[in-house]
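Quick start: read one record
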Amino acid sequence: MDLNKNNNFPEYESGKDSGRGLVIVNTGSGKGKTTAALGMAMRAAGHDLKVLILQFIKSGGRTGEIKIIEKLKPRVEMEQLGKGFIKFKDGRPQPDRAQIENANKSFKYAREKIYSGKYDIIILDEINNIISYGLLKAEEVVGVIKNKPKDLCVILTGRNAPPELINIADTVTEMKDIKHAFRTGIRARKGIEY
């Protein structure tokens, strides 16, 4: 899918803030979806905005981001809601019952946080994957996003963002996989992949 139809942007004045909460989608097969969202969280914290990051798959607190976020509190909070990575068989996701129940419980929790009015930005990390794997319905997520507080920015990350989310998003970035170290047998590196 080529989302790059027009690379021309109208000029904008730096320092002018519309106050409108955006819907941003980071998707695609390439590396950097979560990393880009975390960069936006750091930028927002630098402007004294309140950010919540909810991770829908990751668990166990082993990632570098969860360790450093502790130092950014109270501006940035992160919660790992997941039950770990979902197994695949013959190219198809094979979530277990606990993962399906957890996805629904986690999304209910995310909905409460979205409607709470306590945050300027909420990042729903890997939610696109959860939808793609069939653990959540795209329409349910779209319904919550459409009814979010007007000034709240929501960032949704993960592969295979559904067309329904792409259609309502203000900004969509597709990370394209051109080359990855994994394919040459190089294992995940601390600080790079986690």
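The beta strands are 23-27, 51-55, 76-80, 88-89, 92-93, 121-125, 153-157, 171-174.
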